[in-house]
Amino acid sequence: QVQLVESGGGSVQPGGSLRLSCVASGSIFSIYAMGWYRQAPGKQRELVADVTSGGYTNYADSVKGRFTISRDNTRNTVYLQMNTLKPEDTAVYYCKSQIKAFGSDYADDYWGQGTQVTVSS
């Protein structure tokens, strides 16, 4: 079994900051790409940022310069530092990891349960 558990969501005023964390646990052989997605009510889930096992990062244009994705491979954890938050950042944020589990010949995508981020006055 492989599970992803998120933390760090909450409510913040515009201009504030939050840091999301997501830790993968279970029968993990290796972890490849890790990323963060978000979904606002009535909208499709969209990529926020991701990072490869080699450390290459990719960001949505809407968050460039404000968000930073990072990972700690020794802890199987991916982070999303969110600064200068805007109301349009309000969404449920999900982490996703591409993971090869013990006993599997291939890597699967695993998703966290999601954490609510609300940016309002």
Report what the structure shows.
The chain has 121 residues and is an all-beta fold. Helices cover 0% and strands 60% of the residues. The chain has no helices and eleven strands. Strands 2, 4, 5, 6, 9, 10 and 11 form a seven-stranded mixed β-sheet that branches. The protein has a four-stranded antiparallel β-sheet with strand order 1-3-8-7, with no helix packed on it. A hairpin with a 5-residue loop joins strand 9 and strand 10. The protein is elongated. The termini are far apart. The model has no long low-confidence stretch (mean pLDDT 97).
Key terms:
single chain, 121 residues, mainly beta, seven-stranded mixed β-sheet, 11 strands, elongated
Short description:
This protein is an all-beta fold. Helix content is 0%, strand content 60%.
Secondary structure: elements and pairs:
Layout: E1 2-7, E2 10-12, E3 18-26, E4 28-39, E5 46-51, E6 57-59, E7 67-72, E8 77-82, E9 91-101, E10 107-111, E11 115-119
Parallel strand pairs: 2-11
Antiparallel strand pairs: 1-3, 3-8, 4-5, 4-9, 5-6, 7-8, 9-10, 9-11
